[in-house]
Amino acid sequence: MSRKNKIPLADRVANAAEAALAARHFVSPIDVLVGIGWLDPREVERWRRGQTECLEGVVRTNLPRISEAIRLFRSWATEQGLLASSTEYVARAPRRQTLRFSRSADPAIEASYRMHWVSPELSRKKRERLSEKASRAPELVAIQPLNAEWRCHRCGGTGDLLVMETPGPACLRCVGLDDLEYLPAGDALLTRRVKAKSTRYAVVVRFSRTRRRYERQGLLVEPQALADAQ
After folding, report:
1. Tens-digit pLDDT profile for residues 102-161
2. pTM of the model
3. What Rg value do the Cα atoms of the chain yield, rounded?
4. What is the 3-state secondary structure (H, E, C) of 100-142?
């Protein structure tokens, strides 16, 4: 047994929660599961993109242990006098579907996962801003594939960009983004202006084999918004 696993779960949960709270002034069940090493941040990102059916399916332990950790976290947050704030979780996908946490989809369990706990030291206005930011729908992401031979799981077509869905990659036409125009990265001021004017946009990324991460390449934006910003 590793030294980490010899530490009582309650202490591991408290340590992870304290670290997240110190960094962001609020803490969520996801922060705790990542902090104690049961949840890989890369799996969280796949789930946020709608590529995973439920978050519990990628947590590296059994359901009773997950439930115990969430219960311990809730008790710790209550003892610290933190303020509960329900948060919406929406997929980073064109359909903007509500993300599912639990295998059972039980409403009470889903609600416990969505609950963020906020520092009471923050002013009411700052707490409201934090809640609004946390509930904001994440940016859509389009991928420049490294493999040119990919095929859309819906229509069998292909293209320069794709959007990942749970069954597989989808082309821009099938997800309703084919009317957007590509704006390469490089002009930060223009990018900010276009994002402010475009009611729909998607971040374009490409995987770097050397750095082993996705890196931004530009934006897909509405043509009229780009023209206005220019």
Report:
1. 999 999 999 999 999 999 999 999 988 888 887 777 788 999 999 888 999 999 999 999
2. 0.70
3. 20
4. CCCCCCCHHHHHHHHEEEECCCCCHHHHHHHHHHHHCCCCEEE
* Of 139, 183, 178, residue with least CA distance to 155: 178
| Residue 13 clears pLDDT 80, i.e. is over it | yes
The amino acid occupying position 181 is E
| 38 token code pair | 């049961």
Q: How far apart are CA 43 and CA 7, in angstroms?
A: 25
User: What ranges do the domains of the chain cover?
Assistant: 3-135, 140-229
Helices (H), the chain: 3-6, 9-24, 29-35, 41-48, 63-79, 107-114, 124-135, 172-175, 188-197, 223-229
**What is the DSSP pairing of strand 201-208 with strand 140-144?**
parallel
- Helices 9-24 and 63-79: crossing angle, nearest 10°? 60
